[in-house]
Design brief:
Layout (H helix, E strand, L loop, with lengths): L19 E2 L2 H8 L8 E9 L9 H12 L7 E4 L9 E4 L5 H4 E5 L6 H11 L11 E9 L3 E9 L5 H11 L24 H39 L24 E9 H11 L3 H19 L8 E8 L12 E8 L6 H22 L1 H8 L4 H13 L12 E6 L7 E2 L2 E9 L8 E8 L2 E9 L6 H18 L27
Parallel strand pairs: 5-6, 9-11, 11-14
Antiparallel strand pairs: 1-4, 2-7, 2-13, 3-4, 6-7, 8-15, 9-10, 12-13, 14-15
Helix pairs in contact: 1-11, 6-9, 7-8, 8-9, 8-12
Length: 507
């Protein structure tokens, strides 16, 4: 029987889950982290608790959620570092796992609208996770306008990517408010002790001995892949992927602080599909075009609209196309965002051609090459370089690598329930990077595209205005396409207009 009041307890024979080495890509998200660059991904989800059987009480939701959480191994494991950082860290069962540390209760100040929720989430995301404990936190937030509650989750990127994160959250949800009780899964008991330094060193030495044998064939595969990308780029006349270090510098491209700011937006998925069908593009193309239109408004207002396209890093899921054993199965492509083009349809068509070229080049390079190189990242060198880059504000001393990150994650088109409370909307939030202080993550749910915008507070002070420009950009795209106006989708409980202040536009 499992108890959650003071941490999980298990009956039955003792079973210990073997420790698991992080893949190179998963570990790289740890090495990249600095005091101002936080590598966790988050979700702000709004729920209607009126559907909870017997009525809402915090203790009831907490109990139902904690029972589900402790059955998922990912929530009970913590990191252990190899002595002298001779190899990537390992996941082990936390012998001191305490669910009460990770699940917390909070309340919004009145009136409890989306602005107040965004401020709360920004504050939560401004702090790093404690690496001596399992790398996640969950807040059940009361006082949300309309007698609703919110659940704010924060989990380290070394544990999940966007797609696997959506799948993991899916394990916590039900398809009905009052499902039949599931069979108890006793699972493996936590180990009684962490692995010894001697054991970790032995594992690391084995890995280091075999590493040189892997480098030569990897270098040959990489050379062949690069030549293949060059051939694809030369043969594709319609459009090409953008190149890093080619984006113009704007106010988005500054060294970041630890402080985060969050904003939300929502548009109709049907409206996006109408544009997609009319202009023979993809949903992702339209999402990128809407984001480009919103960025154009933001940059025009700041008097910094560049002549050259911005460069967006667009994560690409490689689930099913790689045999790597890692939590993160993601790569990335670089897509130009032509903010200078005034016509919304021309912007979309240029993005369509560019994304097609970017996909062709990404396919030519192959997911395995990048993941294989990540395996050979040296922890001490990688971490020291990341900290030096942040400390000396090197992001401001060279041309920006990229302008921002944009992710689009598909979600369900049917209702979900957490502890009996019906999910109203979920807003995903990704990390910002040094020199690119904006992350835009989009997830669909029941016919709505929910936009979560995360930014460095000092770098993008007008984040609310950028979020407000998203529905406006969709309206302009529909009108330019000769289509009917968009269906309004409410997000904020009240007005959210603010004057733009902060860094000057000549940065």
């Amino acid at each position: 029987m499992m108890r959650t009041s003071s941490g999980p307890a298990f009956e039955g024979p003792e079973r210990q889950r073997p420790m698991e080495r992080l893949s190179g890509l998963d570990a790289s998200f740890l090495y990249l982290e600095t005091p101002s660059l936080h590598m966790h991904v988050s979700m702000a989800a709004v729920f209607d608790p009126s559907t909870v059987p017997g009525g809402y009480r915090f203790e009831k939701i907490r109990g139902m959620v904690s029972e589900r959480l402790v059955q998922a191994p990912v929530f009970r494991r913590r990191l252990v570092e190899v002595p002298f950082r001779l190899d990537h860290p390992y996941w082990v069962e936390d012998p001191d796992f305490d669910i009460d540390y990770h699940m917390r209760r909070a309340a919004l100040p009145a009136p409890g609208g989306m602005d107040e929720l965004a401020e709360f989430v920004g504050d939560v995301c401004s702090r790093q996770l404690d690496r001596s404990k399992p790398l996640w936190e969950m807040y059940i937030v009361e006082g949300v306008q309309g007698r609703r509650i919110a659940v704010v989750t924060k989990i380290h990127h070394c544990t999940i990517d966007g797609v696997s994160g959506a799948e993991l959250l899916g394990e916590l949800f039900d398809l009905e408010a009052d499902p039949a009780p599931a069979a108890a899964d006793r699972g493996p008991a936590p180990s009684t002790a962490l692995p010894s330094d001697l054991h970790l060193l032995a594992q690391a030495l084995v890995a280091r001995v075999t590493r040189p044998l892997q480098m030569t064939p990897l270098a040959w595969r990489t050379g062949r892949a690069v030549l293949k990308v060059r051939r694809v780029r030369r043969s594709n006349s319609a459009g090409h992927a953008a190149l890093p270090l080619t984006t113009p510098r704007t106010s988005l491209n500054a060294a970041i602080t630890p402080h985060r700011k969050v904003a939300f937006a929502a548009i109709s998925l049907d409206d996006v599909k109408r544009v997609k069908n009319a202009l023979e593009t993809t949903v992702n193309d339209v999402v990128l075009a809407v984001c480009t239109g919103a960025l154009r408004h933001y940059l025009v207002e700041g008097g910094e609209l560049p002549d050259n396209p911005l460069v967006a890093t667009v994560p690409v899921s490689v689930q099913g196309s790689t045999q790597h054993k890692s939590a993160n199965k993601v790569s990335a492509m670089f897509v130009p965002l032509p903010c200078r083009i005034d016509d919304p349809v021309k912007r979309l068509l240029e993005i369509r051609d560019s994304t097609k070229g970017a996909k062709d080049e990404h396919k030519a390079l192959g997911a395995e090459v990048l993941l294989d190189w990540a395996e050979h990242a040296t922890p001490n060198v990688f971490s020291a370089a990341a900290r030096a880059y942040t400390r000396f504000r090197l992001a401001e001393r060279h041309r920006p690598i990229h302008s921002l990150i944009i992710s689009n994650v598909p979600g369900p088109d049917f209702p979900l329930y957490l502890g009996g409370a019906e999910l109203v909307a979920g807003f995903p939030l990704g990390p910002v990077m040094d020199g690119a202080g904006l992350n835009v993550t989009v997830m669909s749910y029941r016919g709505v595209l929910n936009w979560g915008l995360m930014a460095c507070r000092e770098t993008v002070p007008g984040l609310g205005l950028l979020a407000d420009a998203i529905p406006r950009a969709l309206d302009e795209l529909l009108a330019s396409s000769g289509l009917e106006p968009a269906t309004p989708v409410a997000v904020a409980a009240g007005p959210r207009r603010r004057a733009r202040t902060g860094p000057s536009s000549d940065r």
